[in-house]
Write a structure and sequence with these properties.
- The N and C termini lie far apart (33 Å).
- By secondary structure, the protein is of the alpha/beta class.
- It has a single domain, classed as Phosphoglycerate mutase-like (Rossmann fold, 3-Layer(aba) Sandwich), CATH 3.40.50.
- The protein contains five helices and six strands.
Protein backbone atom coordinates (compact mmCIF):
# COMPACT_ATOMS: atom_id res chain seq x y z
CA UNK A 1 0.00 0.00 0.00
CA UNK A 2 1.26 3.47 -0.86
CA UNK A 3 2.19 5.80 1.94
CA UNK A 4 0.10 8.86 2.77
CA UNK A 5 1.63 12.29 2.40
CA UNK A 6 0.02 14.83 4.71
CA UNK A 7 0.60 18.55 4.21
CA UNK A 8 0.07 21.37 6.68
CA UNK A 9 0.57 25.01 5.85
CA UNK A 10 2.00 26.94 8.78
CA UNK A 11 -0.41 28.88 10.96
CA UNK A 12 -1.19 32.57 10.73
CA UNK A 13 2.01 34.61 11.14
CA UNK A 14 3.28 38.13 11.64
CA UNK A 15 2.81 40.35 8.59
CA UNK A 16 5.44 40.61 5.90
CA UNK A 17 7.94 43.35 6.71
CA UNK A 18 7.52 43.11 10.50
CA UNK A 19 10.78 41.13 10.70
CA UNK A 20 12.83 39.18 8.17
CA UNK A 21 10.73 36.58 6.37
CA UNK A 22 12.72 33.72 7.92
CA UNK A 23 12.04 35.03 11.46
CA UNK A 24 8.28 35.71 11.16
CA UNK A 25 6.54 34.20 14.18
CA UNK A 26 3.07 32.79 14.61
CA UNK A 27 0.32 35.04 15.87
CA UNK A 28 -1.96 33.87 18.71
CA UNK A 29 -4.35 32.71 15.99
CA UNK A 30 -1.52 30.78 14.31
CA UNK A 31 -0.64 29.06 17.58
CA UNK A 32 -4.30 28.09 17.99
CA UNK A 33 -4.41 26.73 14.42
CA UNK A 34 -1.28 24.65 15.05
CA UNK A 35 -2.62 23.08 18.23
CA UNK A 36 -5.98 22.48 16.53
CA UNK A 37 -4.22 20.58 13.74
CA UNK A 38 -2.52 18.34 16.30
CA UNK A 39 -5.82 17.68 18.06
CA UNK A 40 -7.55 16.98 14.75
CA UNK A 41 -4.92 14.42 13.77
CA UNK A 42 -5.22 12.81 17.20
CA UNK A 43 -9.02 12.60 16.93
CA UNK A 44 -8.72 11.10 13.46
CA UNK A 45 -6.26 8.52 14.75
CA UNK A 46 -3.57 9.70 12.33
CA UNK A 47 0.02 9.14 13.38
CA UNK A 48 3.18 9.97 11.50
CA UNK A 49 6.40 8.16 10.97
CA UNK A 50 8.03 11.58 10.66
CA UNK A 51 6.99 15.22 10.84
CA UNK A 52 9.23 17.30 8.57
CA UNK A 53 9.24 21.07 8.86
CA UNK A 54 10.62 24.05 7.07
CA UNK A 55 13.31 25.75 9.17
CA UNK A 56 11.44 29.07 8.90
CA UNK A 57 10.30 30.08 12.38
CA UNK A 58 6.55 30.13 11.66
CA UNK A 59 6.59 26.64 10.16
CA UNK A 60 8.87 25.13 12.79
CA UNK A 61 6.75 26.61 15.59
CA UNK A 62 3.65 25.18 13.88
CA UNK A 63 5.29 21.76 13.78
CA UNK A 64 6.42 21.97 17.40
CA UNK A 65 2.96 22.94 18.64
CA UNK A 66 1.36 20.19 16.56
CA UNK A 67 3.82 17.63 17.90
CA UNK A 68 3.06 18.86 21.40
CA UNK A 69 -0.47 17.53 20.86
CA UNK A 70 0.66 14.26 19.26
CA UNK A 71 3.99 13.53 20.89
CA UNK A 72 7.30 13.39 19.08
CA UNK A 73 9.46 16.10 17.60
CA UNK A 74 9.63 17.63 14.14
CA UNK A 75 12.64 17.13 11.90
CA UNK A 76 13.93 20.26 10.16
CA UNK A 77 14.10 19.65 6.42
CA UNK A 78 15.84 22.53 4.64
CA UNK A 79 14.18 22.02 1.21
CA UNK A 80 10.80 22.84 2.81
CA UNK A 81 12.01 26.44 3.29
CA UNK A 82 11.24 27.06 -0.38
CA UNK A 83 11.29 25.29 -3.71
CA UNK A 84 10.12 21.93 -2.32
CA UNK A 85 8.70 19.78 -5.14
CA UNK A 86 7.47 16.30 -6.07
CA UNK A 87 11.02 14.91 -6.34
CA UNK A 88 11.71 15.98 -2.76
CA UNK A 89 8.41 14.46 -1.62
CA UNK A 90 9.11 11.19 -3.45
CA UNK A 91 12.48 10.93 -1.71
CA UNK A 92 10.90 11.33 1.73
CA UNK A 93 8.07 8.92 0.92
CA UNK A 94 10.55 6.31 -0.35
CA UNK A 95 12.09 6.24 3.13
CA UNK A 96 8.68 5.70 4.76
CA UNK A 97 7.38 2.25 5.70
CA UNK A 98 4.83 0.82 3.24
CA UNK A 99 1.43 2.18 4.20
CA UNK A 100 3.04 4.72 6.55
CA UNK A 101 2.27 8.41 6.85
CA UNK A 102 4.43 11.46 7.01
CA UNK A 103 3.62 15.12 7.50
CA UNK A 104 5.24 18.08 5.79
CA UNK A 105 4.85 21.52 7.40
CA UNK A 106 5.65 24.21 4.89
CA UNK A 107 4.67 27.20 2.80
CA UNK A 108 2.78 28.41 -0.21
CA UNK A 109 3.05 28.23 -3.11
CA UNK A 110 5.09 25.03 -2.68
CA UNK A 111 2.35 22.99 -1.02
CA UNK A 112 -0.33 23.80 -3.61
CA UNK A 113 2.14 23.16 -6.41
CA UNK A 114 3.05 19.83 -4.85
CA UNK A 115 -0.62 18.80 -4.72
CA UNK A 116 -1.02 19.81 -8.37
CA UNK A 117 2.08 17.90 -9.45
CA UNK A 118 1.09 14.72 -7.61
CA UNK A 119 -2.68 14.72 -8.20
CA UNK A 120 -3.50 17.21 -10.99
CA UNK A 121 -5.81 18.90 -8.45
CA UNK A 122 -5.73 22.68 -8.22
CA UNK A 123 -6.06 23.89 -4.65
CA UNK A 124 -4.97 26.76 -2.44
CA UNK A 125 -3.63 25.81 0.97
CA UNK A 126 -4.93 28.22 3.58
CA UNK A 127 -2.78 29.05 6.61
CA UNK A 128 -3.44 26.21 9.04
CA UNK A 129 -5.02 24.08 6.31
CA UNK A 130 -4.42 20.37 5.80
CA UNK A 131 -4.25 18.17 2.71
CA UNK A 132 -3.45 14.49 2.23
CA UNK A 133 -2.35 12.56 -0.85
CA UNK A 134 -2.28 8.80 -1.33
CA UNK A 135 -1.67 6.94 -4.56
CA UNK A 136 -1.75 10.10 -6.67
CA UNK A 137 -5.14 11.15 -5.30
CA UNK A 138 -6.10 14.06 -3.07
CA UNK A 139 -7.95 12.29 -0.26
CA UNK A 140 -8.28 15.11 2.30
CA UNK A 141 -8.52 18.89 2.05
CA UNK A 142 -9.44 20.82 5.18
CA UNK A 143 -9.61 24.57 5.67
CA UNK A 144 -8.62 25.92 9.09
CA UNK A 145 -12.22 26.16 10.32
CA UNK A 146 -12.82 22.55 9.30
CA UNK A 147 -9.65 21.53 11.15
CA UNK A 148 -11.05 23.19 14.28
CA UNK A 149 -14.35 21.31 13.91
CA UNK A 150 -12.52 17.98 13.57
CA UNK A 151 -10.45 18.95 16.62
CA UNK A 152 -13.64 19.55 18.59
CA UNK A 153 -13.00 23.27 19.06
Amino acid sequence: MAGTLWLLRHGDAEPHGAVSDFERRLTARGEHQSRAAGRAFARLGVSFEHVYSSPRVRALDTARLLCGELGGKPVVHEPLAGGFDERDAAELLAATEPGGSLLLVGHEPDLSRLVAALTSSRIEMKKGGIAAIRGGRLIVLLRPREVELVAGL
